[in-house]
């Protein structure tokens, strides 16, 4: 790799990509022949096919990163190595400007110096943005996945949820990319390949969420989501070695208990829903695992490399586009979805509206995680589940039992206690810092 490092590297990456593609194609065809795709455990096959599709991107990227680091190719001069530097270092500069590095602590201190009013206003804006965008997204998503599309001759439903994920991600990538082009940002210093981990976990959590509805009822799935704050905190200890206070654990348990009581007391579930099965339980556990990893990995990237919310949004969605497109191409999802859109033009409008609301929701997600952390974000999203059902009770006159009312009280009591103890802990920390300074 000494004489022509660029050509040799490109040849090895292409060779590894082609070999991986052929291998996964053979494995996929073999599995389809041996195992029935319409069986009760067919979700396992779909999960394997999705992972195989992602592998066709992961393997050549691993070869690229490994060889580049081993031979220090990203440190070479020339425009041809700019993309490689972006992948491995997060920027295209051969030498990072010192002035930008010096500004980072100042910006961090300004961020910490925000008044309580500014933080409260920022948190309120994040809450409203998350509630509105995901309420609209949920309505449109349900319409696409459950409504019949009629072209005058045939009536059919759209079934490929991964294509919807791809459309959402590519539009969010375009929005964030355009925004970055026309605004001044910090020097981007997050290696692009690091976005791939939370990108994969994010797409897989969405996949598990959709698949779980085939085995469990919707209230059961919401019930599992309401307890998400606990696995997020546990994953935080594994990913970023986060330390939580006793009151944080206690209030997390209270929130989960309150949400459980509220959801159980919000009325009977609809008849005809699928009963809970082992497959459904496994998929719900997979959703909780992947989703909790996503929030904590993004939080770790914010702390280590300090990207802006829009930079994080752009990087994660870029990786998601690569992974989902590879899987869709391998499974024929593009051909099915494009032909469906050609038969039903209304479907195109629904997809675009869904993508816009998803992009706005993602921006609110990254802003919330960046400013307040993954646990606060999870609390907001957890409360959203209860508020949506409470709104349904008010609009459609569903009865709310005493247990449901008690659940609402417990949730908001837990949130109040969490904020109160957090403020008290911060106040004690400031007092100790001032006392130590005065002694010196």
From TrEMBL:
<feature type="transmembrane region" description="Helical">
    <location>
        <begin position="363"/>
        <end position="382"/>
    </location>
</feature>
<dbReference type="GO" id="GO:0000139">
    <property type="term" value="C:Golgi membrane"/>
</dbReference>
<feature type="transmembrane region" description="Helical">
    <location>
        <begin position="7"/>
        <end position="27"/>
    </location>
</feature>
<dbReference type="GO" id="GO:0005789">
    <property type="term" value="C:endoplasmic reticulum membrane"/>
</dbReference>
<keyword id="KW-1133">Transmembrane helix</keyword>
<dbReference type="InterPro" id="IPR013657">
    <property type="entry name" value="SCL35B1-4/HUT1"/>
</dbReference>
<keyword id="KW-0472">Membrane</keyword>
<feature type="transmembrane region" description="Helical">
    <location>
        <begin position="163"/>
        <end position="182"/>
    </location>
</feature>
<feature type="transmembrane region" description="Helical">
    <location>
        <begin position="47"/>
        <end position="67"/>
    </location>
</feature>
<feature type="transmembrane region" description="Helical">
    <location>
        <begin position="402"/>
        <end position="421"/>
    </location>
</feature>
<feature type="transmembrane region" description="Helical">
    <location>
        <begin position="272"/>
        <end position="290"/>
    </location>
</feature>
<protein>
    <recommendedName>
        <fullName>Adenosine 3'-phospho 5'-phosphosulfate transporter 1</fullName>
    </recommendedName>
</protein>
<feature type="transmembrane region" description="Helical">
    <location>
        <begin position="310"/>
        <end position="329"/>
    </location>
</feature>
<feature type="transmembrane region" description="Helical">
    <location>
        <begin position="247"/>
        <end position="266"/>
    </location>
</feature>
<dbReference type="GO" id="GO:0046964">
    <property type="term" value="F:3'-phosphoadenosine 5'-phosphosulfate transmembrane transporter activity"/>
</dbReference>
<keyword id="KW-0813">Transport</keyword>
<comment type="similarity">
    <text>Belongs to the nucleotide-sugar transporter family. SLC35B subfamily.</text>
</comment>
<dbReference type="Pfam" id="PF08449">
    <property type="entry name" value="UAA"/>
</dbReference>
<keyword id="KW-0812">Transmembrane</keyword>
């Amino acid at each position: 790799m000494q004489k022509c490092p660029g050509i040799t590297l490109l040849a090895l990456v292409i060779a590894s990509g082609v070999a991986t593609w052929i291998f996964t194609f053979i494995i996929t065809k073999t599995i389809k022949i041996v195992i029935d795709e319409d069986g009760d455990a067919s979700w396992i096959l779909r999960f394997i096919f999705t992972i195989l599709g992602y592998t066709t991107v992961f393997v050549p990227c691993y070869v690229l990163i490994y060889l580049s680091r081993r031979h220090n190719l990203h440190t070479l001069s020339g425009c041809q190595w700019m993309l490689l530097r972006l992948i491995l270092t997060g920027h295209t500069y051969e030498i990072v400007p010192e002035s930008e590095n010096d500004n980072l602590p100042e910006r961090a201190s300004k961020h910490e110096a925000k008044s309580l009013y500014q933080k409260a206003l920022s948190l309120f804006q994040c809450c409203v943005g998350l509630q509105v965008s995901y309420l609209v997204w949920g309505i449109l998503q349900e319409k696409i996945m459950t409504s019949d599309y009629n072209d005058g001759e045939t009536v059919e439903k759209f079934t490929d949820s991964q294509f919807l994920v791809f459309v959402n991600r590519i539009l969010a990538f375009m929005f964030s990319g355009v925004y970055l082009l026309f605004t001044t940002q910090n020097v981007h210093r997050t290696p692009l390949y690091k976005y791939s981990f939370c990108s994969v976990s994010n797409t897989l959590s969405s996949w598990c969420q959709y698949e779980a509805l085939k085995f469990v009822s919707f209230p059961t799935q919401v019930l599992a989501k309401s307890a998400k704050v606990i696995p997020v905190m546990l994953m935080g200890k594994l990913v970023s070695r986060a330390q939580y206070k006793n009151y944080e654990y206690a209030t997390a348990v209270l929130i989960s208990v309150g949400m459980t009581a509220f959801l159980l007391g919000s009325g009977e579930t609809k008849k005809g829903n699928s009963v809970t099965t082992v497959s459904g339980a496994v998929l719900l556990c997979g959703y909780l695992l992947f989703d909790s990893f996503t929030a904590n990995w993004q939080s770790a990237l914010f702390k280590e490399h300090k990207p802006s919310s829009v930079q994080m949004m752009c990087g994660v969605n870029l990786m998601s586009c690569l992974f989902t497109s590879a899987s869709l191409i391998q499974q024929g999802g593009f051909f099915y979805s494009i032909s469906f859109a050609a038969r039903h033009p209304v479907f195109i409008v629904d997809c675009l509206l869904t993508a816009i609301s998803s992009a706005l929701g993602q921006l609110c997600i990254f802003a919330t995680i960046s400013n307040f952390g993954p646990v606060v974000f999870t609390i907001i999203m957890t409360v959203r589940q209860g508020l949506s059902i409470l709104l349904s009770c008010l609009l459609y006159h569903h009865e709310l039992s005493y247990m449901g009312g008690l659940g609402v009280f417990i949730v908001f009591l837990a949130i109040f206690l969490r904020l109160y103890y957090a403020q008290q802990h911060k106040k004690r920390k400031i007092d100790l810092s001032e006392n130590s300074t005065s002694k010196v």
